[in-house]
Amino acid sequence: MFKEYQTARELVGPLMLVEQVAGIKFGELVEIHSGDGETRRGRVLEADGDKALVQLFEGSSGMNLRQSKIRFLGKSLELGVAPDILGRVFDGMGRPRDKGPAIIPERSMDINGAPINPYARDYPSEFIQTGISAIDGLNTLVRGQKLPIFSASGLPHSQLAAQIARQAKVLGGEQKFAVVFAAMGITFEEADYFIADFRKTGAIERAVLFMNLANDPAIERISTPRMALTAAEYLAFDLEMHVLVILTDMTNYAEALREISAARKEVPGRRGYPGYLYTDLATIYERAGRIKGRQGSITQLPILSMPEDDKTHPIPDLTGYITEGQIILSRELYRKGVFPPIDVLPSLSRLKDKGIGKEKTREDHADTMNQLFAAYARGKEAKDLAVILGEAALSDLDKKFARFADAFERSYVSQGEDEDRSIVATLDTGWRLLSMIPRGELKRIRDEYLDKYLPAPAEA
């Protein structure tokens, strides 16, 4: 039986204080019936004795406290799921925004999810091909991993996210693969770009989109990634699909969290963000993974824009602690016209060694990856030295490494926005670039692979 109260006492922004309540639980869903006949929704943010602090999803503008009736529904926010969610576009609260029919749910799932028992987790060990060489070849994404992309204002992370969503696939066999795409705090133009791109390429048939616009309430931004992950858990563990979850932009999510925290008058932590930011982000990121005995998996690719290009900012800093590496976009490469502008040297995928090699990608993958890293780093050092001392001060070998670094950025890192490279094409491109360097300098590759794969300089 629902409990209904008319004891709302205070309204500050999206927060409402309700007094003389009983048996109210944290996270409980709330309906507010205002005097003008409008119904709004919210959730219990804090319960203390006979008082409850309610967070409104639709905002509080125009509400009349005296005439409002508050009904506590005895359950938390849920998402109705069914196989029909594939190919659909929803808002941040799980309501259709593509003018399609409402979903007839097979079941309703709590958007906060259920934590995966660490003992039941299976180790990520299978390769996911994104079609992007700088990721597949050097910072490999593994099924069940959480690998964030650290971007900055003005860099093309939206285009990169759309390209990965369009091209990502699981190799080997006829395995069911889906993409869950959640966008938080984006403009109408960005939302239109994502939806149009998915429809134009046909990728929407295997995707579920959740769109939260910049003018939507901040509280809706907090529920958006949880809605997306709930849909992903249904697809992965009920329908046994391999699901890639792309979350953009996590910085907008954290800003919404800070806004709500300020409205609650909580003591701020670093740079004004709430002290529980780490814990809150962990409740999102840790929903990626595989479960022993289950076919499905959830792989996460969160995207965040670093304020002022600062890697030590609380959002990228805490994200780096929780996740298994990071892909970093470079403003310098972007100015050179490189797309995607992935800076491979500071980027890292901690699980890449588990997803590459014989019967996964190719036997020479690990050796060529290490050699490309080493050669590119040496080429960058040679170019930096040339800036200080002049190119005449470089040895002939240093000049070769400097030319290699330029060719590497132009041919390996840079690729078309619609170019979908297979892992074999990526590895072969790496070998052609390595042929620019004398064989004696390729010390990180075994002789058997050099004999088998290294082309002659003239052939390259």
UniProtKB/TrEMBL annotation:
The keyword 4Fe-4S does not apply. One of its GO terms (biological process) is proton motive force-driven plasma membrane ATP synthesis. InterPro entries: ATP-synt_VA_C, ATPase_a/bsu_AS, ATPase_F1/V1/A1_a/bsu_N, ATPase_F1/V1/A1_a/bsu_nucl-bd, P-loop_NTPase, V-ATPase_su_B/beta. CDD domains: ATP-synt_V_A-type_beta_C, ATP-synt_V_A-type_beta_N, V_A-ATPase_B. Residues 131-349 form the ATPase F1/V1/A1 complex alpha/beta subunit nucleotide-binding domain. GO terms for molecular function: ATP binding; proton-transporting ATP synthase activity, rotational mechanism. It comes from the Bacteria. Keywords: ATP synthesis, Hydrogen ion transport, Ion transport, Transport. Residues 12-74 form the ATPase F1/V1/A1 complex alpha/beta subunit N-terminal domain. Residues 354-453 form the ATP synthase A/B type C-terminal domain. Produces ATP from ADP in the presence of a proton gradient across the membrane. The V-type beta chain is a regulatory subunit. Belongs to the ATPase alpha/beta chains family. This is V-type ATP synthase beta chain. The lineage of its organism: Bacteria, Bacillati, Bacillota, Hydrogenispora.
